[in-house]
Amino acid sequence: METWARARLALALLCVDPVGLTGLWLRARSGPVRDTFLEGLGALPLPRRKLHPGIGDDALFGGVDLAATLSAGDIRRTRGLLDTPSALILTMAERATPALGARLAQALDGGTHCLVALDESADEDEGLPSALTDRLGLFVALDNVAIGDTEIETEWDIEVARARLSRIIIPADAIAALTTTAASLGIDSLRAPRLALAAARAHSALWGRDIVSDEDLSMAATLVYGHRATIVPAGTPEEDEPPPPEPDRPDDSVEEETQQQDGIPDELLIEAARAALPPELLARLAAGRATRMSKTSSGTGAAQKGNRRGRPLPSRPGKLDGQSRIDLIATLRAAAPWQTVRQAMSPRGQGLHIRPSDIRVKRYESKSDRLLIFTVDASGSAAMARLAEAKGAVELLLAQAYSRRDHVALISFRGTGAELLLPPTRSLVQTKRRLAGLPGGGGTPLASGLQVALELAMQARARGMTPTVAVLTDGRANVGLDGQPGRAQAAEDASRLARSLRGQGIAGLLIDTGNRPAPTLGQLAAEMDAIYLPLPRADADRLSRAVGAALD
After folding, report:
1. Mean of the per-residue pLDDT values for the chain?
2. pLDDT of residue 154
3. Which neighbouring-strand residues pair with 413?
4. What are the counts of helices (DSSP H) followed by strands (DSSP E) for the chain?
5. Greatest mean pLDDT among 357-361, 452-456, 519-523
6. Residue 294 contacts by C-beta under 8 Å, 6 or more apart in sequence?
7. pLDDT greater at residue 491 or residue 313
8. pLDDT at residue number 284
9. The domain spanning residue 194 has which CATH number?
């Protein structure tokens, strides 16, 4: 019930000052709870306009009215959605591209629009483009709210509060208090204190006050800072600890301290923001693994542009080559402004004149499948432990692969060479069967492992996949490519293969499994242009999480 009450309060503040707060980020699945919440948008003073993540520039900014232009013979333009101040409602906002986020952010900076972003993402690594999360003042999550908790207990007079807003007085130390609190929570954007101040003014007007109070600032910190925090400030000292004795001071010092204490307490705002931090974020911060909630990486492979399938992209000038698909509407738009001139210059006179420079071809973008190539050191006394870790990590990563277009392969190097133990697959059953009873022991032919990984990566790239090589070793390479023992030759061969991987632009991750970080492995990772990650005694869970974080 507390979550719903806070969500309704955030919606009321947005209705009081939609332009000052810029907008609201609503994280909730489609359903009756979200529908009930969105009914409150009827109190907004701006007309509502719905957007979808695939909207084009013509719809946003306006463009050539094709039918009117061809009929009249001169250019006629249409008005875009951003031409009129409005409340923009972005559906499926988690699918918005950074380019769309930048265009909407520019509109929000103009001070005439507000945006309600409907985020239906299921995973934590999904979300809005950072350009929007930085500008939307309020955040509401309704994932754990049941329809029975949506009873309305408090009603506010939005019109009266909106009329009172311009008369709200801001204390001199309010801005400093909000700025200090933002810095204490690790918020590096200066937009956050400005948005928090707008929330405090709206909250004060909503409750009929003429001056922003400590309660208004606390609620503003809760609603604006809670989802932006990147660090958790240390808690206040225990109350049962006796305070240190205060030295005797003159009366003027006591009076000066009293005046300082009359200001807005920063601890109050920090505790208010701490109370709004999601539990999962607190756990990540406590473990030192804080991540931005607004990151948009989906874990998929590289983007591939084509003219057949995928997400539509804006059309580009092209040729009639018999292979590209012509964008007829875009071609006509390009030709329409020139019809009057062309008709006057052409002996044919009237009619539609299309030139080769008008041709526009369709473009699409699709995500390639990603291949993660585990290259595991199976030599020496720690071979069985490393293989067990690698097998467990492969199974954990494959369990998540079905929604991320991931394939996994496993290469083992030991003795005098390397062997492909598991070809690229997404089948968890086949993986468990192939990984059972793997051998270990012998020399460390690191160069051979890198060579097989390079060949497999090149084959995968030729099939349209995006390969990434993850190497697990303790760094004691002692067998060269020719199968002969010798540390110097083994190191030289490994360095040459590492440079080859870098030259081919293959992403890499080098995990040092030794008890102590090996400087030679750090140098090898630099030659591969790979991430170097020392993980002594890493289990399968830590290994899979490290690989997943490095890839994202």
Report:
1. 78
2. 63
3. 377, 418
4. 22, 14
5. 452-456
6. 127, 128, 129, 130, 132, 133, 134
7. 491
8. 42
9. 1.10.8.80
Give phi and psi for 245, each to the nearest 5. Answer: -65, 140
- Decide if pLDDT at 276 tops 60: no
Tell whether 86 is covered by a domain. Answer: yes
CA separation for the pair 209, 214 (Å, rounded):
12
Residue with tokens 């208090």: 177
Residue 416 within any structural domain of the chain: yes
Tell me the sheet residues that pair with 48: 87
**What's the whole-model pTM score?**
0.58
CA distance 299 to 388: 25
Residue 188 domain boundaries: 156-234+262-297
The three-state secondary structure class of 526 is helix
Q: Which of 5-14, 160-169, 246-255, 373-382 has the lowest mean pLDDT?
A: 246-255
Task: Report residue 273 as tokens.
Answer: 């923001």
**Predicted confidence (pLDDT) at residue 515 exceeds the cutoff of 90:** no
Q: Which two tokens stand for residue 50?
A: 């719905």
* The pLDDT of residue 283: 46
Q: How far separated are the first and last CA of the chain, in Å rounded? A: 35
What pLDDT band is residue 533 in, cutting at 50, 70 and 90?
Answer: confident
Domain containing residue 35: CATH number: 3.40.50.300
Do the domain assignments include residue 251?
Answer: no
DSSP secondary structure letter of residue 360: E
Question: Which residue stretches of 170-228 are H helix?
Answer: 174-184, 191-206, 214-225
pLDDT at res. 258:
38
Q: Is 493 exposed, middle or buried (0-12, 13-18, 19+ CB in 10 A)?
A: buried
Domain membership of residue 131 (yes or no) is yes
E strand segments, 387-462: 406-414, 417-425
For 435-485, list the strands marked E by DSSP.
466-473
Number of domains making up the chain: 4
Residue 260 burial by Cβ neighbours in a 10 Å radius (0-12, 13-18, 19+):
exposed
For residue 313, list its beta bridge partners.
363
**The predicted structure's pLDDT at residue 165:** 92
Residue type (1 letter), 445: P
Between 272-286, 395-409, 440-454, 487-501, the lowest mean confidence (pLDDT) is in 272-286
SS3 402: helix
The residue behind tokens 């539609």 is: 352
